[in-house]
Specification:
By secondary structure, the chain is an alpha+beta fold. The protein has helices at 8-16, 26-32, 36-61, 77-83, 109-119, 133-158, 212-222, 235-267, 275-279, 325-329, and strands at residues 65-67, 71-75, 88-97, 101-108, 163-164, 168-172, 189-198, 202-211, 314-317, 347-351, 354-364, 367-375. The protein contains 10 helices and 12 strands. It is found in: Cell membrane.
Length: 384
C-alpha cells in the first residue's frame, strides 16, 4: 500500500512537471530563487546603473565607453571557481543609505591596469607590470565615482536617496581556498555580467556579485513591496472611524462658527461721524521743488597723496564661457574648457572690476606679463 503512494518529493516534481529530475533538485531550486520577472527587474537596475556609470567613466578616461545589456544568473562561489581560473580584482561596494547591503564588482587585472594608466595620464598600454597599490587606489576612485553616479539614477528609480561608502579594491583568486569575500563557498549569489568596451583598449566582461537576499530586497523595493508592520484596518472599522470623525468634525465646525459669530458681534462698533471733520476746509497747494541747475561746483585742492596708498586690484581676463550645471559636474582632470576669445585677440584689463584697458600677453623671464596696448576712455568703460 505504501509503495503505491507518492512521496512529497514526487508530488513536488509532478507539480513542476519535472518528474525526471527527482533526486537532483539543487539546480531547479537554484533557478527558482529568482523568477523571470525578478531577474528582469535586476537586469533593469543594472542596466540603468551601468548606463550612468559608463558616462562617468568616459569623463574620467577620455575614451568612448560602452557597457552592454546585463545578463542575470544564480550561481555560487564554487561554480565561479571552476569557470574563472585567473586572478581578478574585486571592488567591494557598501550601501549605507536607502539600501542596506554589500556587493562586489569583479574586473580583470589587465583591465584595471589599463584604467589606472589612463587615469594617470597614460595611453592605456602600460600593463606589462605587476598590479600595485596605485592601480587599486585608481580603480577604487573610478568605481567610487561610477557607483556614486549610478546611485543618483537609482535614487530616481526607487524615489528615495541612495548613497554608498567609499569602495575598497583588492585582488582575488576564485580558485583559492582562502578568498576574502562576503560569500560562503556554496551560498547562492546573483551574478550580473556586463560586456565593457573602452575605446580600442578593453573589450571584456565585468561582473557584479550580489547576495541573494540583498538582490531580492532590491526587487521588492523596486516593485513597491514595503515591509509595513501596521495591521490593515477592516472595512467595518474604517466605516466606524469615518462616522466618528465625521460627527466630531461637524461638532467642531458648529462650535467654531458659533464662537466666531459671537466674537464678531462683540467687536463690531457702530460708525461714528464727526461733523467738525466733515466741515473742516482742506487747503491744497502746488508742490514746489528746489532747482539744482545753477548749483556751484565745489572743487577740492587736496593732493592725491591722500589716497595713493589705497590698493587697487588689477585683473586680466583671458576669456569667458557659459556652461550648464550638468556639463560642469562632468568635469575632471584633463577636461578642456573653450573660451569666447580668439587666438591673438586683446585681453581685457580691469581695475577693481572696472574695464580700463586692453593688452597682450608677454613673457618676462619665467613669468607671464601683460603689455597695455589701449586705454579705454571713461565713456566706453563698462563695469562687468
Amino acid at each position: 500500500m505504501n509503495n503505491d503512494m507518492l512521496s512529497q518529493e514526487e508530488i513536488d516534481a509532478l507539480l513542476k512537471g519535472n518528474l525526471g529530475d527527482i533526486g537532483n533538485t539543487s539546480e531547479s531550486d537554484s533557478q527558482d530563487a529568482l523568477n523571470d520577472v525578478e531577474k528582469d527587474a535586476l537586469g533593469e537596475i543594472g542596466n540603468i546603473s551601468m548606463g550612468t556609470a559608463a558616462t562617468t567613466l568616459y569623463t574620467l578616461l577620455n575614451q568612448p565607453v560602452k557597457i552592454t545589456t546585463p545578463k542575470v544568473k544564480i550561481t555560487t562561489m564554487e561554480e565561479l571557481s571552476s569557470e574563472y581560473q585567473i586572478p581578478f580584482v574585486a571592488v567591494q561596494v557598501k550601501y549605507k543609505l536607502g539600501l542596506r547591503g554589500t556587493n562586489l564588482l569583479i574586473l580583470k587585472t589587465d583591465d584595471v591596469k589599463v584604467i589606472a594608466d589612463l587615469m594617470m595620464g597614460g595611453d592605456g598600454t602600460n600593463i606589462d607590470r605587476d598590479l600595485n597599490e596605485m592601480d587599486l587606489s585608481a580603480i577604487s576612485e573610478a568605481m567610487n565615482q561610477m557607483v556614486g553616479s549610478s546611485c543618483t539614477s537609482l535614487s530616481e528609480m526607487f524615489s528615495y536617496t541612495i548613497d554608498i561608502e567609499p569602495p575598497e579594491a583588492f585582488e582575488i583568486d576564485f580558485s583559492s581556498e582562502d578568498i576574502p569575500l562576503l560569500f560562503d563557498k556554496n551560498e547562492e549569489i546573483v551574478k550580473v555580467s556586463f560586456r565593457m568596451i573602452i575605446g580600442d583598449l578593453i573589450d571584456s566582461e565585468i561582473m557584479q556579485l550580489i547576495p541573494l537576499e540583498f538582490a531580492q530586497d532590491m526587487v521588492k523595493k523596486l516593485m513597491g513591496d514595503s515591509s509595513d508592520n501596521s495591521q490593515p484596518i477592516q472595512p467595518k472599522e474604517m466605516e466606524n472611524e469615518a462616522k466618528i470623525s465625521e460627527e466630531t468634525i461637524s461638532k467642531e465646525i458648529a462650535t467654531s462658527n458659533k464662537d466666531n459669530f459671537e466674537t464678531k458681534e462683540k467687536n463690531i462698533e457702530k460708525p461714528q461721524y464727526d461733523k467738525k471733520k466733515e466741515e473742516k476746509a482742506v487747503n491744497i497747494q502746488k508742490a514746489q521743488f528746489r532747482s539744482f541747475d545753477n548749483e556751484e561746483k565745489i572743487e577740492y585742492n587736496e593732493s592725491i597723496n591722500l589716497i595713493q596708498e589705497i590698493p587697487v586690484e588689477i585683473t586680466v581676463e583671458l576669456g569667458r564661457t557659459t556652461r550648464k550645471i550638468q556639463e560642469i559636474l562632468e568635469y575632471g582632470p584633463g577636461t578642456i574648457i573653450e573660451l569666447d576669445k580668439l587666438v591673438g585677440e586683446p585681453l581685457e584689463i580691469f581695475a577693481n572690476g572696472k574695464f580700463i584697458a586692453k593688452g597682450e600677453v608677454v613673457v618676462i623671464d619665467d613669468n607671464f606679463g601683460v603689455r597695455i596696448t589701449d586705454i579705454i576712455s571713461p565713456s566706453k568703460r563698462i563695469k562687468k
